[in-house]
Specification:
The complex is a heterodimer of chains A (279) and B (330). Chain A is an all-alpha fold and 279 residues long. Chain A has 13 helices and no strands. The longest helix of chain A is centred in the first third of the chain and has 32 residues. Classes of the chains: A mainly alpha (279), B alpha+beta (330).
């Protein structure tokens, strides 16, 4: 970086802004995690204090883990999220490739139609979706959730990925065609690796709402065997009494897997290998 | 093994014809250059030969066999792109060997073919690198190497030198000419740069707006252009076009190359507007009263003052006569 663009004052200012934003964004997470390690009295007496020798208490975690189903809830959430993510990325990328690569009648309309879902919330169709699931016998199965989340995630995925795929050099794809690669090989071996950063972005944007969703698990799969972690945590919130220790502990635990997934994808974001592909 | 023939080849996008019935014969082993201004359809024509664009009408044949409906990979062609189009996640060796691997060639044979191509292009030391670790010139050599490895009937080059800087362009141009001699393969080369066309081609095809204006050897086009377009496009600096009527001639336009316009004389009157000294030659731009800006090209260093009045003369035997439509009068 040249000296002209790198002034200390400016970089301090930039860091101050970023640090402030980070503090604001992390504050609720911080409060949840800190309080999950305190006893009930300490939570209410001084919610912002760090756990000390006196107030430190793992009762929340003990309650959560003692409820034997919690591992199952975790597993359900993970299965639903990862499966939905896989289908959203696979089908989204395929549709995006078709839209960006091939000239066919109605290409533009198809693109608009597929993007329409971004503007219309899928929850408006909840009643119809429930009827559909009842009719097809999918109520109280994880498959119901995977199907709904895949539908919910596809519009944004198609929209973002088709935009990125338009940016992949035509020459590169044509070079592949001349070298005898099939369209599938071009898609999987040439184009997908080049749009990996975009795939990671889509993955993060798709994953978090699915993991956090309470609505569809509650309506489509509320049975004990299919509860997700967000739904499971609700067990500790009662109409009259709420077990705050357990709620906070459950939420703290729920952050972990999604944090791991995020770290995996953000590495992809940074490690773009597009540089030097074409001049 | 690699004669190409096009007959009445047409390409339309909707109602607009981009290529309007092109007929062309390229003999085996010939170096054929498509040249023309941007938008003339030269790249589209090349991509049709490669099979990357559909042919709307007409026929493309290699060695007499119609290839209109063959997939690009089945046409036994190789293409070098302006943007190199190397596979970014593969090493140079894998880039060069991919087509053979895809065709199911045994591994030992692939290694042999890539090594041979690498030796021809001095790429031996770079085989394990990825494209991102190469310079522009090296990348283009790898792209050419990838084409050689396949031993195609037909090499297609789509403006391969346009992304290189001037020095590298000359060097790579010489390299391509050498490869053509060594391989003896048929090559089709697209460029908008008439210097590349003149220096490389056995046969130049000048295209304008989807039509072939003239086909011929470089010196044939230079010394015997069919119309004002070809006359103006081939040769640098551009040919001067003078108004025939002002010179008392029957032809509408008179074309004179800058080197055939001579200082001193009384046929044309003008004033020097700019002088460019290049050491080996001197270019003078003269604003002529009757004909607009004319270019003179003189050998060696010559001195002219800007705004100096200058009379010009020319050798009538070396002038080209054109009619009002721009067609040559012979």
């Amino acid at each position: 970086m040249s000296d002209a663009r790198h002034s200390t004052a400016r970089s301090i200012a930039a860091h101050a802004v970023l640090l402030t934003y980070t503090a604001i964004a992390l504050f609720p997470v911080f409060v949840i995690v800190v309080n999950s390690f305190k006893n009930r009295r300490a939570i209410f007496a001084d919610p912002l204090a760090l756990p000390s020798g006196d107030s430190f208490d793992l009762v929340g975690y003990r309650t959560v883990l003692a409820q034997g189903d919690f591992l199952l809830y975790f597993q359900n959430s993970l299965i639903v999220t990862v499966a939905s993510l896989f289908f959203v990325l696979l089908f989204g990328a395929m549709a995006a490739f078709a839209l960006s690569e091939y000239r066919f009648r109605g290409n533009m309309l198809m693109g608009l139609y597929l993007a329409l879902g971004i503007m219309i919330p899928i929850r408006l169709g909840t009643v119809a979706i429930l009827q559909l699931m009842v009719a097809s016998g999918l109520v109280n199965t994880l498959a119901a959730l995977v199907l709904v989340y895949t539908a919910q995630g596809l519009p944004l995925a198609v929209f973002i990925l088709s935009e990125f795929m338009r940016g992949v050099s035509d020459d590169l794809k044509n070079a592949g065609r001349i070298d005898g690669l099939s369209e599938y090989t071009i898609f999987f071996r040439l184009v997908l690796p080049l749009v990996r950063p975009a795939m990671a972005t889509v993955a993060v944007f798709t994953m978090i709402p699915i993991w956090n969703d309470l609505w569809f698990p509650l309506i489509l799969a509320p049975s004990e065997a299919t509860k997700t972690i967000t739904l499971g945590s609700q067990a500790f919130i009662g109409q009259f009494v709420t077990n705050w220790n357990a709620v906070l502990a459950a939420l703290s635990l729920a952050i972990l897997p999604v944090l791991v997934l995020y770290l995996v994808f953000s590495r992809q974001l940074i490690r773009g290998i597009t540089a030097g592909a074409v001049k | 093994m690699g004669a190409l023939s096009l007959s009445q080849v047409t390409k339309s996008f909707g109602a607009t014809d981009v290529i309007k019935g092109v007929d062309l014969e390229v003999a085996d082993g010939e170096f054929c250059v498509f040249v023309g201004p941007s938008g003339c359809g030269k790249s589209t024509l090349l991509r049709m030969i490669a099979g990357l664009e559909d042919v709307s009408a007409g026929e493309i044949a290699i060695d007499g066999a119609r290839i209109n409906d063959l997939a690009p990979a089945k046409r036994e062609i190789a293409m070098v792109f302006q943007s190199y189009a190397l596979y970014p996640h593969m090493t140079v060796r894998d880039n060069m060997g991919l087509a053979l691997k895809q065709a199911g060639t045994p591994r030992a044979e692939i290694a042999q073919a890539t090594d041979r191509a690498a030796a021809m292009l001095a790429l031996d030391a770079l085989m394990a690198r990825r494209p991102a670790e190469l310079s522009g010139g090296q990348r283009q050599r790898v792209a050419i190497g990838r084409a050689i490895v396949r031993r195609p009937k037909l090499f297609l080059f789509d403006e391969p030198l346009s992304n290189l800087d001037a020095a590298l362009r000359v060097q790579t141009r010489i390299e391509i000419a050498r490869l053509h001699r060594e391989l003896g393969a048929t090559m089709i080369y697209v460029t908008h740069d008439q210097v590349e066309a003149m220096t490389l081609a056995d046969k130049i095809v000048v295209l304008r707006a989807g039509r072939v204006e003239q086909v011929g050897r470089p010196m044939d086009l230079y010394n015997d252009p069919d119309n004002t377009f070809v006359a103006g496009f081939i040769g640098s600096p551009q040919m001067n076009f003078l108004k025939g009527a002002r010179l008392g001639l029957n032809s509408d336009t008179l074309g004179i190359r800058p080197e055939h316009l001579l200082p001193g004389g009384s046929r044309i009157q003008g004033r020097v507007s700019h002088v460019e000294k290049l050491g080996g030659e001197t270019l003078a731009y003269v604003q002529a009263e009757d004909h607009g800006l004319l270019t003179l090209r003189m050998f060696g260093e010559r001195d002219f003052a800007v705004d100096e009045a200058l009379g010009l003369d020319f050798d009538p035997d070396r002038a080209f006569h054109f009619d009002a439509e721009g067609q040559r009068l012979r």
